[in-house]
Design goal:
16 helices; 298 residues; disordered N terminus
């Protein structure tokens, strides 16, 4: 589709897992209200209402026109023009524009890095679109926003009203993982279960979430699941199957390019370490599993 959309759209390719322990309707109502309540309690102004406010005389005839202009400017490298157009669409509640601006402020992409503004853009999505149905064109951006918010709640944002809150982080990841089947949400939730952060420490539950994400091609989940299968952590010990997941994870990060490979160097290291210590029989079994997986997808 468009260059800046390609990375997130794939996240909703698979239908969400419905057989979860959490009541989705309860999560949905909870997720839709807690962010606004936190802001109200803090008395904080909403920074995205103060950042270059735009009105109907900004030169755009419609939200759609502003969004298309923002896409065109962004892909042409005109980040200032992209921000101006996307901000206009965002003030009208346009989901993808809100999401993209959140990513730009989170990464300092054409704008000064500002985690609070990023948090507010993502919060606006969560506040207004928490009931977006999975499988719609908007759903990947909504689920991605919840995952981003979970990340902010893990550590908080210094010198702002956004404080570290593990319960909030669990809520955000749980909603993205359960309702939308988001692999990033599933991975982050699994990490919380592995570390016992905000939830009881439970390797079996962690492995369950990792398996869901691994099956969607999430490299980090594949690597962690593979390591757990080799060690028999939370799951029956299956070295051959674990090596298969590690092989898939390494292949994915190597295909993503140098920057991704550097960021995910731990995956390659984990792969190399486990393959070096594996028996010949386990390596052969892993290759057999891998051939079957590539042929059948399971």
């Amino acid at each position: 589709m468009f260059a800046f959309l390609s990375g997130v759209v794939c996240m909703a390719a698979a239908a969400p897992a419905r057989a979860q322990l959490t009541d989705i309707s309860v999560l949905q109502n909870h997720a839709a209200t807690i962010l606004a309540a936190d802001r109200a309690k803090s008395g904080a102004a909403n920074p995205i209402d103060l950042a270059n406010p735009l009105t109907s005389d900004s030169g755009f005839k419609s939200v759609g026109e502003a969004f298309r202009r923002g896409i065109k400017d962004y892909n042409a490298g005109n980040k200032a023009g992209a921000v101006r157009a996307l901000q206009y669409a965002a003030t009208q509640g346009h989901t993808v524009s809100l999401w993209k601006l959140g990513r730009m402020f989170a990464e300092g992409d054409g704008v000064p890095h500002d985690d609070l503004k990023a948090f507010e853009y993502f919060s606006r999505i969560a506040d207004n679109y928490a009931d977006e149905s999975p499988g719609t064109r908007q759903a990947p951006f909504v689920s991605s926003a919840f995952v981003a918010l979970g990340g902010y709640f893990l550590e908080g944002i210094p010198n702002t009203y956004v404080k570290a809150n593990l319960n909030r982080a669990v809520d955000m990841f749980q909603y993205a993982a359960s309702y939308y089947g988001d692999p990033d949400g599933q991975y982050n939730l699994a990490r919380l279960y592995l570390d016992g952060q905000g939830v009881p420490k439970d390797a079996r539950q962690a492995a369950r979430w990792l398996k869901l994400a691994a099956g969607k091609g999430h490299p980090a989940s594949q690597a962690l699941l593979g390591n757990m299968l080799i060690a028999g952590q939370g799951v029956p010990k299956q070295p051959g199957l674990g090596l298969m997941w590690l092989a898939l994870a390494r292949e994915s990060v190597q295909n993503e390019g140098k920057s991704a490979a550097a960021e995910d160097a731990w995956i390659t290291e984990l792969h190399d370490k486990n393959f070096a210590s594996a028996s010949d029989d386990d390596r052969k079994l892993a290759m057999s599993y891998l051939e079957q997986y590539l042929r059948t997808g399971r």
